[in-house]
Amino acid sequence: MPSTPRRLVTYSPAITLVPTYECFNRCQYCNFRVDPGQDVWLSENDARAQLQKARSQGAIEALILSGEVHPASTRRAPWLQHIYRLCELALAIGLLPHTNVGPLSREEMAQLQQVNVSMGLMVEQVTPRLLQGVHRHAPSKDPDLRLEQLEQAGRLGIPFTTGLLLGIGETVANQDDTLTAIACCHHRWGHIQEVILQPYQPGHQDTHEPMGYGAAALVAAIARARALLPDDITLQVPPNLLSSSQFLIAALAAGARDLGGIGPIDEVNPDHPHPTIAALAQDLDAAGWQIQPRLPVYPAYDGWLNPALGQRVRQWRQHIATKTSEVLKTSEV
């Protein structure tokens, strides 16, 4: 009797590179940033060593995740050039870059588009009320600026990931407004491949007092997101921020289908380590799910890439297809 097909949930085998932790924003909940001028930028030699190690351990994605240098700073241009160079390094080593470094000018975004298979920026929440709350010292968290970034990426034809940070003082209505704004942008440009539903979790340095955000609230948010967003946008949840495997299974049942980038460390939430793929596979298998690696660009967007990036992506797709075929043959023996 044939076995029941298992439902698929994807993840991206990833390494996170941080060009700098310095940031001119001061979000009340952040465990990532340091003050401007108080951080030594990641050297190319250290970046190369990290990327080579990650490639040898099976990583596909190089997530370039940076604190923000102020747009008016004389160090802004060197900062952007450093990020560009790290993307080039990742490509030379065989990884696929995905950059998320805060709001960018059109020219900056277009420059990074040449060396990234996808890019991203969290909207977090569109309510301006948080500018008097957790974002009162974070000018680049202005909702209009964040939404304009989504529009700009659409106009440039960049496959894009965005998302919501949940539990930072917003209401359910605020969440739905954010989801609706993302849906409207995608209807115009068709470029949003993933929306992350990220429950806020405090770190050891955190003094913010968030509203409670447990399993029931997240599952309800996922269900509403699935109803409000177009079907071709994948919902992502970070498994290291969920308190149990049962919580994860409930999130999948509500409509999540991706677990995001999983690697050695979650740089934004270092107090919440990623689970191993083996542990995830075991928990998911018991509930009828099969975990599967993916690239940081979804197949529907392969044709959006420049020829050099498109060739790299085709090579990776062929590699994954070959590995999958080998696994299937082995399982049939």
Please work out how many helical segments DSSP would assign: 9
Biggest sheet descriptor: 9 strands, parallel
Task: Indicate the structural class.
Answer: alpha/beta
**Average pLDDT reading:** 93
Shape: globular
Write the element-wise H/E pattern from the N-terminal end onward: EHEHEHEHEHEHEHEHEH
User: Uncertain regions: pLDDT < 50 for 5+ in a row?
Assistant: 204-212
Helix content: 25-40%
Distance between the termini: 17 Å
Task: Write up this protein.
- With 333 residues, this protein is of the alpha/beta class.
- 39% of the residues lie in helices and 16% in strands.
- The protein contains nine helices and nine strands.
- Strands 1, 2, 3, 4, 5, 6, 7, 8 and 9 form a nine-stranded parallel β-sheet that branches.
- Helix 5 runs parallel beside helix 6.
Question: Which helices and strands occur, and which strands form pairs?
Answer:
Blueprint: E1 7-17, H1 44-56, E2 61-65, H2 76-93, E3 96-100, H3 106-113, E4 118-120, H4 143-156, E5 160-166, H5 172-189, E6 192-199, H6 215-228, E7 234-236, H7 245-254, E8 258-262, H8 277-286, E9 289-293, H9 307-332
Parallel strand pairs: 1-2, 1-8, 1-9, 2-3, 3-4, 4-5, 5-6, 6-7
